[in-house]
Amino acid sequence: MPSGILQIKAISAHPGSIPGRGVKREDEVCKYIDVTTCIGCKACEVACVEWNDMPFQQTTFDNTYQTMPHTTWNYWNLIKFNEHQRDDGTLMWLMRKDQCMHCEDPGCLRACPADGAIVQYTNGIVDFEQENCIGCQYCISGCPFDIPKFNSTTKKVYKCTLCSDRVGQGLEPACIKSCPTGCLRFGTKADMRALADARAKQLREHSGFPNAGVYDPPSVNGTHVIYVLHDITRPELYGGLPANPTIPPTYTAWKRVAKPIGLLLALFAAPVAFFHYITEGPKEPSPPRSREFGDPGPPPPGSREPGPRPGVQ
């Protein structure tokens, strides 16, 4: 079981070096979820709420066994139910534990403009630091899995932390501790991926699921929460799991293209303004204008006032 003090890998909107980066080698962790052995008992939902000391709330009935339609700011873990009709006419319950995927390339961290609001540890956990959150909600738009949720009262954003407090002390996440069927496992990324590949192979060769596979999308460089699915070719059947999750290109363009160009232009602006001052001098103030309507003001220096016209008394 990976344990020890968590080492920071990346910090949102942080311009300097990462404190303590590289001083310790740490294994990448991973949560393994086998949807084929999930019974929908929701013990993981209760364990998540209790461990994170979140207030219980009213459930919502929408003709399914789901506790509510989607995760909320104080409900980070939700079992999604989908009744699926197979090609032979039989029905299947497709149940999936919906939560933060802890992407290797997290869109929430890339989109966040607040220094230190989102932290990625070297073990793969992506954590939110609410005291640094400015409530802009860019992380919500940057997440391809629609996970972060905004609290309109505190003006902060919340999501699953993969129990970083427990993992830092060598414990497994609370949801995994509560699972009665063993469909949830926790360990290093290499071990969990090997376990998932072996299970998918077993489903293909012995259980009649030729399309079984492991959901670990390369479009976000992999995730630290992986699924074993009956049908890897149609992940959307499992509560809307995206087949090809991608970070919106606007955030990629801003952080990797537009922002560096803007900083470069700002660096050039200072010497240009300095040389303009040297060559042209300071800007001369405009002459004051009279506030009285119709009064042209005093004549400019060196001019004569016009005398009386001839013949005019």
Instruction: Supply the CATH class of the largest domain.
Output: Alpha Beta
Main sheet summary: 4 strands, mixed
Number of helices: 7
CATH topological fold name of the largest domain: Alpha-Beta Plaits
Could you give the order of strands across the largest sheet?
9-2-11-10
**What are the segments in which pLDDT stays under 50 over at least 5 consecutive residues?**
none
By oligomeric state, this entry counts as single chain
Structural class: alpha+beta
String of helices and strands: EEHEEHEEHEEHHEHEEH
CATH architecture of the largest domain: 2-Layer Sandwich
Number of strands: 11
Rounded mean pLDDT is 86
Distance between the termini: 110 Å
Share of helix among residues? 10-25%
- The amount of beta strand, in percent, is 15-25%
Q: Please state the CA-atom Rg, rounded to the nearest Å.
A: 30 Å
Q: How would you sum up the global shape?
A: elongated
Structurally, how many domains make up the residues?
2
